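protien #1 (seq + structre)
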Amino acid sequence: MRNTICKLAVSFLLVSSLTSPAIPIKAESDEEIIVKASTVNVRKGPGLSYPIVQQLQKGDSCEVINQQGDWIEISSGAGQSGWVANWLVQKDDASKEERTKEGTAETDNLRIRSGPGMDFQITGSLKKGVTFQVMKQNESWVKIQYGDKEGWVSSEFVSFKKVKDEKKKKQKKTNSKKGVISAELLNVRTEPKKSSTLAGKLAKNTEVKVYSKKGDWIEIEFKGESGWVREEYIVIKNNDDSKKKNESDTLATVTASALSVRKEPSLDGRIVARIHEGEKYTILKEKGNWVQIEIAKGETGWAADWYLKKTDKKPSESKIELKDSKVHVIHNGTNFRSSSGGSSPIVYSGNAGESFPILSLDGNWYKVKLEDGSPAYVAGWIVTVSGDAPQLEKAGIQKYLSNKVIVIDPGHGGRDNGTTGTMGTLEKNLTYRTARLLQDKLNAAGATAILTREGDSYASLPARVGTSHFREADAFISIHYDGAKDKSARGVTTYYYHAFQKDLASDIHNSLTAQINLKDRGYRFGDYHVIRENKRKAILLELGYLSNSAEEMTITSSSYQETVSGAIFTGLARHFKANM
């Protein structure tokens, strides 16, 4: 669907120039780009001097044909092509190969976690031989879908095989009605039965098209396909009931540290105010990826919606599906208490494999029915659930990264190899490995992690800094590995340029040296373009010496890559916690 939108967008003005010869299309790759900026100009050639042929909107995706410097050639699918700046888009993380992979657990009690790292919460486990769909994979972790749940498992204990990618055909439906979701978070399934695959979830007050009814299930339109929801959690409207939710009943809470409010819904609009994290404003109107808010009485402006969290002014209680839901004990000695709270008396000690029906929710605790019929409470973050009850989690250090924008800069790339190790390791490849592992951890924690380059591509230093400024990054992390004529040189160094960057350097460096066993070379001033010209908090990391053969063996290992990306992740979380 997104690719179709892109094709229409790129071809719109190209087709209007009928006197111009068609641009030949090169063989297309398996890669796609996704637009991350609110709008992106598509040009006739790889440079700002070329005329604009159309604009893409945030979320559009297009197939990649070619790359030249900082520019990516994309296909319109209509015998035409156009060029976009690579710092305004991001290549699709999920490759076609990954989408058609199936994994199998190769060990008993394979733990499922909420993110790719040992610090993320355990949300379940798999028995040996159980198969699942692979959603994404990096060298240490695999994101999986098992039944109606998602999570991450260690790739060390997984085997893979390819499966046929069978796409469902879209069916056109007529005589539809409208419906509104009444549950807080409602499961949408591929078939009218609880055991079918989970297609996704819909939030309360979402309006959907309703097609048919089968037993206790209602067929709706979901992501362009047919989906099914329980009848009791949807309110059907008559066709003449066209009332829409009053947008003035919605509040926007600022999630960025500082956000520009503009006169028009465009990045070219004049800035009329600056608003700050935590402030709340009434939404008056929405247009694309922009919302009009009331800054003060009689004063309005437009802000980018990806830095705003929308909530109802008058939230009301709503039902959460608990029917047939159970908790499953995953650790021996799990405590069940007389009421919610860690200080309540223990009434039962559960063992791994036991399960109990869920009666209700109480904050981050489940109220369950024990085998003798008595009620008890168990902390949601130490058990897993089945059925439609939500998986409750205890907010850990990850909560300090939620809604933060982190720009990760994998040093070098393309024609710039960086340092070459004694065993032939190219720095550009190693920095990209580290960046991808860090990106997966940050995204799983609720941050928006953006890479300055994708794959083995070249990005200029100004383009890297431009990404930091354009995305109003809360932190910019430039990743490098060192080299020296002295083959005995070793260790980790962190650099900052501006005084306001020093605390970030200190927090990240201290986290690194606490978790990795390399020489501590300290954090210090460094005159590097990507931190010197950066107006955001930015640091440059040198994470070990490729010119030292012993250190090269260490830093290229998967265990080091996992540890060092985890240390940067922890350092970022601690930094934001300290600056709350």
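ok now protien #2
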Amino acid sequence: MSSMKNAPNTPVVIGVGQSVDRLDSPNYQCWSAADLAAQAARNAFADCTAPAALLARIDAIVTTRTFEDFYGAPAPFGKSSNFPRSVAKRLGINPPHAIWSQGGGNSPQDLVNEFCQRIAQGEFEAVLLCGGEAISTIRNAQRTGQTLDFGEDPDGEVEDRTSGIDKFREELARRHGILNASIGYALAENARRAHLGLSRVDYALEMGRLFAPFAATAATNPMSAWDVPSYSAEELATVTGGNRWVADPFPIRMVSRDQVNLGAAILIASRRVAEEVGIPAEKVVYLHGHAHATEKPFLERPDIGSSPAARRTARLAIERAGITVADIAAFDFYSCFPIAVSNVAIDELGLSADDPRKLTVTGGLPFFGGPGNNYAMHAIAEMVKVVRARPGAAGLVGANGGWLSKYSVGIYSAVPRPWRDWRDEALQAELDAAPALTPDATFAGHGWIETYTIFSVKGTPRYAVILGRSSEGLRFIARTAESDDETIKAMQDSDPLGRLVYVHSDADGVCHFHFLEEGS
């Protein structure tokens, strides 16, 4: 590693680790999220083969945000008041800096981008990134009547960047029943189907063909959150008792599964520190290209079925790495729902669902597991192992946050490369300057359905939401009125896309719709 002396502050990934605590394992530990993050960090230190020497050099610990801290939901068994310091305490370290990141599935890749830059600038020498989720353990304890104690209040300063959840919330959307990710993504997915002109059946099979290779990858991954069957496209696409509706067009096998116990960690250091603590050359991985961008608010996007921010970010990161799509040996596209993959991999980069390079190295969020904001940490950990094993190869990780709201990309390779101080302001300014649509919050009159979803609870339809356009091109949002089972049945019986509706607003500022025949 003598060549490292040429650029001592070049940031490098030197260790990765993961942890899993399956309920059905004979070695089940009933770990908390902090326990899982700490175990993943121990594995990362072991991976770099110099744990004792490196522990003392860590000057910052940075953690992603658990779902409990992201959404501000009550923690039934308590939680840490200072998650980074809880993990550090388990590792026996007390770094001068502890940082608690904002939420979003993009955050692990954003953190790699940020702290590589800060190491390159000489601000830090060695940084531990980590996170964990114990959602499966928590829900199992609630279901079985167990009592756990995950509350702790460790000492130490922390830079708490807050959850950032308010950035994802739009009051008009919430008022009309867009209450969770499955509803927002279903609207985006059906908008994409409308553009492609596909029937419900054909589009469902397309989603199934996209995700079947993900399930097959997860089935062979020992770090998956559970034993995964190798589903066929038809088994993923067909609604059955075991594959119930969540939000049209998604049955439950098509959506991220957050009931997991998983942790992941990444160690980043300067080349100088890596050399001084004796990291073997074959362990060192470089970030060749990266980019990040934020999309317009959900209801303001001219095309609900596409995210220009995600697509441009992927292209820019590849360009910065000095390669083409054909040069990339492995991919991992964030896969909370099919459109998060197809928007970038299929529609922008021109890949196919059966690309022999595969579109995931983990198995994806519905099959490997969806540990909240920390999934991409697992993807990066897996990608580092892939490019280490294939000298000269490049791997792409795409990390998505919100409702196709934020996207971050990293290109990894074991080939040495000097650090470049790339900034994303110009890309963001260009995206922000593009025309947006302002939805009419009190629309009344006739219009046509642009996209829709029917939200179900345990397979039973509860209400439908539509986005539409008036004859003047105005965007509106509406939902079915309470107990309007007739409209929901009509939507189930016949494809609603493009159908004529009449919309009116009630006293609470909620727009409702019902169908009209053309010419009415």
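The chain has 16 helices and 17 strands.
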